[in-house]
User: Fold Aromatic ring-hydroxylating dioxygenase subunit alpha from Streptomyces enissocaesilis.
Amino acid sequence: MSDVSETSAGGNAIPTETENLARSVVTAEADPSEMTEFAVLPKAAYTTEEYLQVENRRLFSVSWMFATFARHVSEPGDVVPVTVQGVPLFVVRDEEGTLKAFHNVCSHRGSQLVCEMQKERKTIVCPYHAWTYNLKGELSWTKHFAGVNATDLPDRQQNKLGLKEVAVAQWLDFVFVNFSAMPESFAQQISELEQRWADYDLSSMTYGSSMRYDFDANWKLIVENFLESYHVPFIHQTLNTYSPFSERYQIQLSDRLLGIGQGRYQPEPLHGKRLPSWPMRDGKENIKAEYFSVYPTFLIGVMPDHLFAWVLEPVSAGKTVEHLHFYFVGEEGAHAEKFAPHRAQTLENWKQVNDEDWEIIQRMQAGMQSPAFPHPLLSRHMERNINAFQTLIRTHVGLPGPAATTLVS
Ligand code: FES
Ligand SMILES: [Fe+2]
Assistant:
C-alpha cells in the first residue's frame, strides 16, 4: 500500500488515538489563517442548470457511471434496460458470457428496443418492424424492408446498422458504463480501493434491500457531506455513539478515491447477537468501517457486517435522487429469519443518519441562494477531502463564468 496516501484531521499519516488527541490540541491553538482551505468552487457550480449541463458534457459523459447490478445480468441471455444521465441503454450478457452495453435504440426509426428485464434471449427484436439484433449488437434480420417478402438488407448495409456499443465494467455486484469512445480503465481507477479492501472476503456479499431519498440539493453537496466527519457530533448524535467522531480520519487513496475511515463502528448488539461479519483474509477481528466516494457519483462503504452502495442521480442543479443499496454477509446475513431484527436495526440506523443528512444538505442548498453567502469556507483540518473533490471537479468541468480564485482566510 505504498502508493496509498492518507490524511487525518491534521496531517499526512493515519494518527493513533493519542496522536489524534494531540492534534486536536494543536488545532485549537493554531493560527486561524492557517486553518482554512481554498474552496475552489463558487456557489454557482451548485445552483445553475448551465453548470450541470457542462458537468454532463465534460464529466458524466466520460466517467464510469453506475448502470445496474451484476446479479441481474449473471447468465447469458440476461438483458436489463437502464437509463444513465437520461440516456436509454441496455446491459446484456452475450452467449459467450461477456458483459456488454448498448444504446437502447433501434437503428431503423429509433424505437426503444428493451423496456423490461428479460432472460434467455438469443436476439433483441425491435417491437416496431421486427429488426433483429444478436447479443453482440449486430443487425441480423430486416425482412420486408426491401419489399414484401423480400430478403433482408444486404450484409454490407446491415453491418453498418448494428447497435451502438458503450463501454462497460463490472466490480462486485455493480455494473458501470462509460460513454467515452476511449474510456479510462475502470480497473485502474478502482485498483487502490481493491487493494485496500483486499483483506475483506466480499465474495459472499448478498443483496438485502434499498432505500431512496429525493433531495432538493445539488449532487455535489451530497458527496461533500459524505466526505467529512466534522458534522458528525452535531448532526448525527446517535451515530457518534457507535462510530465516534474522535476515531474518524480522512483518506485520499487517489484523486478519485476519497474517503473516511472509522476506527470503530460498533452498534450495540441486539439480544446479545450481531449479524455475521465479513470473513477477513488476515484472520483478524474487524471493527472498523471505511467509505469512499468513487468519483463522481458512486459512494460505497464497508462496515464489519454489511456493505452499502449509494448511487447519486443528478436530476437538475437543485435536485438529486440518491439510491441506497445494502448488502449483508451471505444468505444468512441477508435472509435468515433469526437476523431479521438485526438487519432492521442496521437499516434503521442508516435511515436515521440519512434523514439527518437529508435535512441539513437541503438547508445548504437553500443557503446557497442567499446573496449574503459569498463562498464556502473549508477547514484545512476537517474538510481537506472536500477541497480535493472540488479541485477535481474544477479540473474536469471548470468554473462557471470567468475563472477566479478566492482564498478565504
Ligand atoms: S423502429 Fe425498429 S424496426 Fe422499425
Ligand atoms: Fe452525515
In short: The pocket of FE2/S2 (inorganic) cluster (ligand 1) is lined by residues 106, 108-109, 111, 126, 128-129, 131 (CB under 6 Å). DSSP finds eleven helices and 19 strands in the chain.
